[in-house]
Design a protein that fits this description.
Elements (H helix, E strand, L loop, with lengths): L11 H6 L4 H6 L4 H12 L8 H11 L9 H22 L3 H15 L7 H4 L1 H4 L4
Helix pairs in contact: 3-5, 5-6
Length: 131
């Protein structure tokens, strides 16, 4: 995010694939959001660092088409992998763990309502706001 706005755009084929030149790209602002999206697709994760060689290989694969244009399928797969891993990690390691408590409490109530109160009756809905 710090260096991308300072670096010149030099990929003529990629620029030509969208009808622009490198000079046109150099005049476009580089937003932090764009940097984050590209990093997520390259790293295929939002919370991990990867070796430079892997990052370089993935970046090269994004433009490995005959005309040098962006391979949107590979880019979208990398982005989907990162989003999926973040969601899974959120449920396994993060605040999402509490959701499983609510789901189990509700399932127990659905199975045996005479023995198990609802999560709301237990006051678990209020705890979820603070977790």
């Amino acid at each position: 995010m710090c260096n991308a706005p300072k670096r010149p755009f030099t990929d003529e084929k990629l620029a030509a694939s969208v009808g622009l030149t490198c000079d046109d790209f150099n005049q476009l602002p580089v937003s932090i959001a764009a940097c984050n999206i590209v990093y997520d697709a390259l790293a295929e994760s939002r919370s991990g660092l990867i070796p430079y060689a892997d990052s370089d290989a993935r970046r090269a694969a994004f433009t490995a088409t005959e005309d040098g244009s962006l391979d949107q399928t590979k880019f979208k797969i990398g982005l989907a992998k990162s989003r999926f891993l973040v969601i899974v990690a959120w449920f396994v390691f993060g605040k999402g763990n509490f959701v499983w408590v609510l789901v189990i409490a509700q399932a127990l109530h659905d199975i045996r309502p005479d023995l198990f109160p609802t999560p709301k009756d237990l006051g678990l809905d209020k705890i979820g706001f603070f977790v």
